[in-house]
Each structure stands twice: as structure tokens, then as C-alpha cells.
Amino acid sequence: MNELLSLKHYIHDHPVFPASQLSSFKAIVTMSDIITVQTKPYSGQKPGTSGLRKKVKIFQQEHYTENFVQAIFSAMPDGSEGKTIVLGGDGRYFSPEAAQIILRIAAANGIKHVILGQDAILSTPAVSALIRSLKTDGGILLTASHNPGGPDEDFGIKFNTANGGPAPEEVTDRIYKITEDIKEYKIVKLPDLDLSKTGEFQHGPIKVTIVDPVSNYIQLLKEIFDFDMIKNWLHTTTPKPTVLFDALNGVTGPYGRAIFIDELGLDESSVQQCVPKPDFGGSHPDPNLTYAHDLVARVEKEQIEFGAASDGDGDRNMIYGAGAFVTPSDSVAIIADWAEKAIPYFKSGIKGLARSMPTSGAIDIVAKSKGLEVFEVPTGWKFFGNLMDAGRLSICGEESFGTGSDHIREKDGVWAIVAWLSILAAANKEKPGSGINDVLMQHWKKYGRSFFSRYDYEQVESEGAEAMMSHLRETFASSGFVGSELKATSSDTSFEVAEADDFSYTDPIDGSVSTKQGLYIKFVDGSRIIFRLSGTGSSGATVRLYVEKYSKNESEFGEDAQVGLKPLIEVALSLSKLQEYTKRDKPNVIT
Ligand code: G16
Fold it and tell me: Domain count of the chain?
């Protein structure tokens, strides 16, 4: 780290604070401790769907990380002076180095106290929980979530505000604007802090409290769920239900062990890949059918009843039992349906439900039957925060394997997994022997089934992807498109267009408007096709195609979603000319 402090990096060795401001620092930091470094803006430091995500090598460029971190402090609501923040992340490559940089810049920007996860590790939900329980002024997360890690892979930095949730667009826009004009940042010369020991430390002018990453979060879960009910189901049923949790070498390993082994009393065979690795063992820490293949294979081979995985930073989840994949859209609808009877936190009632626009309407049907408000927001967890803060939202989810509630302001993979264990325990009280498939079938019989699938075309040329979106926009605007019949290519099935538009959202709490949030077509029979460009990739563009069809026909419930959705997928591919624009004839991932 010494080269970081080397004078060759710094043009100035004098603070640029007005004397009036500087006097307040003098007691703790001497003038020569704060260095103002001249820098130049880097283009493209625009936070995406959830923070800034780029290749590690980009973050390692001279001043790159420093510029962005300075922009965060400069953009903090009410300034950074005297504030307390939480700092931690998924432990990916470059996290310790980034944590040291952030401590130095925090010190120079007047931050008073940093609550830091041991070894710079904290899951994304654990950061949100700490911000809320310690009432801090926000937090900085070192994560690129489900993106791969390692020296040639991705890193990310995200800022969360005092409610524990990802900064709203108004704040991320401010951060971006600062990065576009930044000329200097402030830093204090400090040696590396030993991140491995818990306790309280004075690090130059700031107090740093290094905490065990797991305990505060596990305590919160114990207040939400009935662990005794789950234990009772797991240990008194004959034969004993089998369970497998896979952390995909991400940050949830220690959290998973604390729950499955320490709290629920299961043995070592119930967890795998539970040691966080900086490169996630060289794989993609994304819990879906493609990237969680080790889990899927073992669940099928050993016919494990309950399998679950979480992503790199612990905010995503996948629920998968033998022969039973739960789509995230169904998962949140089923959690909402069972919440009051299976999860003590919701015993006194649910305030409202919500989903992101591309997520299937399964949760809307539950909301309707319970007489609850339901909201459709753009993709991005940050859009749920205002509704939760206003007391209008309890449970929400996204098709991108994100599920959560108002216990924190991030989606929460481990919470969703324990929610499903609670549902199975409660279902077994009603009907012994109930497995994931029984819960799914029971739900579909009651509410109908929303068939849903997403096709991802990763790292395509940005130009081609943008051109495809423009072509769709023009098609939507052409006269006669609404009302036209779109035909599948390999069958006689056709769909009449009822509505086609670019999704925009007006936040019901603060009135802020977010436009261009995804191109959707709704058909007369209730089916939908949606196209979006991902906001979480680190290079090129990722095209996401979402398709949904609703059925109340019981004879279809057991059908493979890919079979039932084939005509819609054909319509989407031919209408968008996706293959022509992206030069891809098949997706990288199908969920
Ligand atoms: C982030 C956001 C989610 C969003 C997801 C997918 O998840 O927190 O709200 O649904 O990205 O975004 P996109 O489709 O733009 O790639 P994570 O788990 O990556 O933080």
C-alpha cells in the first residue's frame, strides 16, 4: 500500500479546505495529514442497476477507485462530516485493498466511525441489517454480486443510504455527475489496518469497529422466524427430510453454516461450497439452473428434498428440491401466501406486496385474493425502499432470484431460504409428507399457474443490442401494431397485441419518475413479452428476454415451462430480430 501513498501519485501536499472548515478537523487530524490529490475524471462511472460494476483491472487504474469513493462521500445526503458508515462486501478479489482506500478517503472526508466486517466481509443483507440496527448514516458495499470474481473478473462498489437500501437514483445520479467533473480527492496517509481482528480501533482520525460478519444478522433472523418449528420438522419427521445449502463459494458460507449446522443442528453433508473465495472457485456465483449446476446435480442424484443456493453477496436465492424448481416469481407469491401462518414476523399482518415489472403476475393474484395493495416497480431493489419506509410494503420479489421483506432494505437470499424451510415445516403440520412439489401444486390449484422464463444473451455488442431496442421501439410506435396478430413460427398459435410500451414508473411516495425501464408487449390473453438491457453487466451488453403466460387449466400445471412458452418465445425472437442484431442464435442462460 505504500506506493499508494507515494508522493509521485500526489501533486499537492496541502489541504484545500477553507480555513473555517479545517479548524474543526484540527483536533484529530493535522493539516499535513490530509492530502488533496489532483485527478482526472474517468468516463463511465455511472452506477448501474445496483452500484458501479467493472473489471478489477479497471478499478485498479490509478485514481479510479479513489475518484468514485470521493464522489460517494461528496454526494452523501447532508455531507460526510461526522458520519458513521458500515463497510464490507462479498470478499471478492480486490476487496481488502479497496477497504483500505475507503478508510483513508473516509478519514479525509470527516467520517467519524466505520463499522467494518471482519476481513472486509459482510453479506449485502447483513450490511443493510447493520445500517438499520446501529442507525448509521449509510454504508459502502464492496460487491459485484453474482458476477464472477478474480484478477480478470469483476469488482463493484455500491452506496446504501441510512434506510439500509441501495441509494436512490437521485443520489446515484449525483455521484455520477461528480465523477464526470472530479478534479481532486482527499485522502489521509494511513498505514494498512489489520482487518482480521474484531474490536475497536483508532485508525488515524476515525474510529473503526471491526465486527463478526454473521452474529448481528443471525440474531435478526431468529427474531423473524420460528427456528423451533423448523427444527421440529427436520428432526422428528420419519424419514428425516434431506437438505442441501450451496453458498457457491460466496459470502453466505459462514451465514449458511451458522443456520444449517449451528442453529438447525444438521450435519456437514447439508452444506457445500461454504468457504468464501476471492474468485468464487473460478465459477459464476449466480444461483440459477445454469450456474448452480453442482447443487442441481447433487439434489437430483441424492433425491434431496430441499436444496437452496445463494449468490456471491448473499442477496439472491434459488429454491430447488428433487424434481422441483421454484421460479423466483412463484417463490415470492408462495411466501406471501404462507407468510402469516408460517413466519412469526408477519403474524400481525402484511402491509402490501410488490414485484419488479418483468416478474410474473403470480404475486398480484395472491394480493388480490388477500385484498392487499400490490405494486409494479422497475427492475432494481432500490425501487421497493420508499414503499417499505412508507409502511405500504411487506413482501416483494424479482424474477432475478431476489426475494425479501421490510425486515431490511435489500433482497435477502438466506431470509428467503429460511422462509421456504418455514413454509415446508408449516405445510407438514397441515399435511405430513408435503414437499416443494406439493406446495407448488397446491398454490397453482388455488391461484392458477404463471409460466415464466427468462433468456439471457450475455456480453453481446452494445451497438447491436441498442439497435435491437430501437427497432422494437419503432415497431411499437408503428400504426396498427396494437391490435395486430403475431404468429409463432412453428405452430398456428398467434397472439393479439393489447398494449406495447416502454415501462415508466412514478414512485407513489416521492413522485420521482423513472423512464425507459423495459419494453413490454401485453397480449389480449394476458401473456407478456419483455425486453430489457441488463444494468449489472461489466462489459458489452446483456439482453434479457422475459416471457410469461398464465393458465388456470390444471392439466397444464405439470408441463415444462419451456414447452408451454415456446410459441411466445418464437414470437419474441422473430419480432425483435434478435439473432440478426446480436449475432446470437441461443442464450447463455435460460431460467
Ligand atoms: C441487481 C439488483 C436487482 C436486479 C438485478 C438484475 O441484483 O439489485 O434488483 O433485479 O440486479 O438487474 P439487471 O437485470 O439489470 O442485470 P444483484 O443481485 O446483481 O445486486
Answer: 3
**Cα(43)–Cα(77) distance, integer angstroms:** 23
Q: Kindly state the average pLDDT of the residues 259-285.
A: 96
Which residue, by CA, sits nearest to atom 4 of ligand 1? 380
CATH code (residue 179): 3.40.120.10
This prediction's pTM: 0.89
The answer to whether the CB of 402 is under 6 A from ligand 1 is yes
Our answer on whether the CB atom of 458 is closer than 6 Å to any ligand 1 atom is: no
Q: What DSSP assignment string belongs to 334-380? A: HHHHHHHHH-GGGTT---EEEEETTS-THHHHHHHHHT-EEEEE-SS
**Tens digit of pLDDT for each residue in 187-197?**
999 999 999 99
Which protein residue has the closest C-alpha to ligand 1 atom 2? 380
Domain range enclosing 454: 450-590
Closest CA to 461 of 576, 543, 572, 577: 543
405 and 476 share a domain? no
Q: What is the pLDDT of residues 401-444, one digit of tens each?
A: 999 999 999 999 999 999 999 999 999 999 999 999 999 999 99
Instruction: With residue 158 as reference, give the H or E element that holds it.
Output: strand 154-160
Q: Are residues 439 and 456 in the same domain?
A: no
Q: Within a domain: residue 5?
A: no
Q: Are residues 364 and 422 in the same domain?
A: yes
154 lines ligand 1 (CB under 6 A): no
Residue 345, all three cell numbers: 414476523
Count CB-CB contacts under 10 A for residue 183: 11
